[in-house]
Every structure is written in C-alpha cells, then in structure tokens.
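Quick log. Single chain, no ligands specified.
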Amino acid sequence: MDNIIQVSYALDTFYFLVCGALVMWMAAGFAMLEAGLVRSKNTVEILTKNIALFAIACTMYLLCGYQIMYPGANEGGIVPVFGTLLGTENTVEAVMAGGDDAPYYAQRSDFFFQVVFVATAMSIVSGAVAERMKLWSFLLFAVFMTGFIYPVQGFWKWGAGFLDAHGFLDFAGSGVVHLAGASAALAGVLLLGAREGKYGKSGGINAIPGSNLPLATLGTFILWLGWFGFNGGSQLKIADVENANAVAQIFVNTNAAATGGVITALITARLLFGKADLTMALNGALAGLVAITAEPLTPSALSSTLIGAAGGVLVVLSIITLDRLHIDDPVGAISVHGVVGIWGLLAVPLSNADATLGAQLLGIASIFTWVFISSLIVWGGIKFIVGLRISKEQEYVGADVAECGVEAYPEFKAK
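-> predicted structure:
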C-alpha cells in the first residue's frame, strides 16, 4: 500500500510538472504570434517584452503572488491573507497518511504550474499594447499585475475565496487567466491610444499588416499544443482510472474546440470580407481554446466543437467592432481572451449542472471590475510618472531602434 501511494504521488507530481512545462512553452507561442503580427521594425521590442515579462512574472509570483493567491486562510473571503515566498514542502508522513486531506503531488509542482499561468495572463497584455508603448513602462506594470492584481482575483476562485463560495466555476481559467489579462490590456489600450496612422481623421480604419504570417502561424500552433497542458493539467491528477479518463476527455475537447473556432472564423471572414483571412483563422483557433478553457471536461467532443465554433464567430465580430470603436489592438488579444473568455464562462452551465448563470455573471463582473479598475490606476500612475508612449518620431522609426537599439532584420535595411 505504501508503494502504491508513493508511486501515485510521484506520477501526479510528474504529470503536473510536464503540463506546467507545456504551459511555459506557450510563452514561446505568444512571442512568435506577436512578433508575426507586428511590423518588422517592432519585432525585437515585442520579443524582449515577452521574455522579460516571463521572468518578472515568475519572480513576483515567487516573492508574494503565490501566497496571496493560495494563503490557506480566509476561505470565502474577498481580501486574501498576504503572505510571502513559498511554504514548506509536503512531508513523507503527510503523504503516507492517506485520506482525502493527504497531499497527492509536490507543493513545488503546484507552484510551477501556477506561475506559468500568471505569465500567460501577462502575455495577453503584451500584444494589445504593441508598437507604441515604452518597454520599461510595460515591464513596470508587469510587476504589479503578476505580483498583486492577478493573485487577488485568482484567490477569489482558485484560492477558495468568495467567488468559489458562491459557486462560480472556471476549470482552467477563461476568467481567472484570460479575462483578467484582457481586462488589464483594455485599461492600458484606452490610456495609451491607437498607433499613428491606424485611424483616419474622418473615422476611416487603416489596416496595418503584420510582418511575418508564417511566424504568427507557428506561434498559434505552439499555443495550441501548450493548451493541452493548460487544460489537462488543471485536472490536477492522472494516477487512477477516473482521472486518467478525465484527462483524455479534456485533451479531446480542447482540440475539438480549437478546430471549431478555426472553421467558423474562416467562414465568417469569407462571408464578411470575400477572402480567406489567415489572421482571423489564427484568432479563431485561439478563441476556441479560450472558450473551452472554463469547462473542458463535462461537454462532449461535439459540444466542445460547437462551443469553440461560437467563439470563432464572436472573435471576428469583436475584432471588427473594437476597430470601429477605435480601440487599437494589433493582435486581437482583447477579443480573443476577453470577449470569448466571457462566452466560455457563460457556456459552462450548458454542460455542467453544478453551474448557475448568476454565479458565472458574478465571476465575470468581479474579475473584470477588479482587474480593469486596478490596472487603470496602475497604468495611470505610470503614465503620470514616466509616460506610456514612445514619441511619434520613435514610433515612425520603430520600437526596436528606439527601445532596444537593434533591429530584427538588419540585412533588409537599405544601404
């Protein structure tokens, strides 16, 4: 019996770590996607943001974020108990005791899995503010977002806070991760303003194509792969028949939703624009993945395809609508992660009898309000102290030269 417990503990810990590594690989996906969807003169800066934000997220979550999000106290509360650093690791005695209260994976594996989630939320912000934000202003915001803003709302659901007590369901983070990241991005975009030349004086919308669609496509496939760890790891266990079957169902549903999103986004774009739009297909895949993240276990594979398909239509319509409102989001992050994140949360009651529409609406309103307002305050403070935007001249030359002093493709520069 002791050997069975130890093997189960080791297997669940290993599975948790592997899923965390897959989610960490999503950082590469975001970097490639964003680098492909911005102009070549802003490539180095967007890559710098992505690797730096990952490092900042991991450090801030280690210093304080993890203990804010999982304080082990104030269950059902709004304000978490603010702690610092990691707690002690599980003891052999606690593991071998068995029972429902015994830990079944290493605490450090839980930290690793959670820290890559907070980095994902911050990556969402990166693309939305691309091509016109100061690098160091963005990184300063990352400190507050990953160390304090994200962990507080994460505690409300996953740390047994008041949203969890009210029955709000969010299996892997359509709200806690994706809506939170999009809400912070929206606050930044509203204060930042649009890129130069994006909108004409008469209200016209000027397309600003990305520089490398093969790279953006590669980034999307990397994110698609990483999402199996994102959703599959959120099951938390795999070392028994019931949980192994659940993980398999989650993988199937996650993939099905992504495919549904691609198909409907491509069709919707064809109907609206008369052409097959690759960028909409890419965002359709991500929209399907975001939509199913709130509940990837209880739907059937066909239902998951339909949930993702609805997300694919929504993301195209949302991108068009935000453009008409002159909200400039170069990569469609607010639409993919925010609008479709809300849809994913609202879709949970369609397959999970434990979910209620009221609880889901409460979660949506709470996460958006907290993250948007707190982010607006932080963004506003940064704008007042050091500014948010690079100058018009720097934007014309490109953020690569202005912020990093190096170009991504120097061999293409005219001699």
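The radius of gyration is 21 Å.
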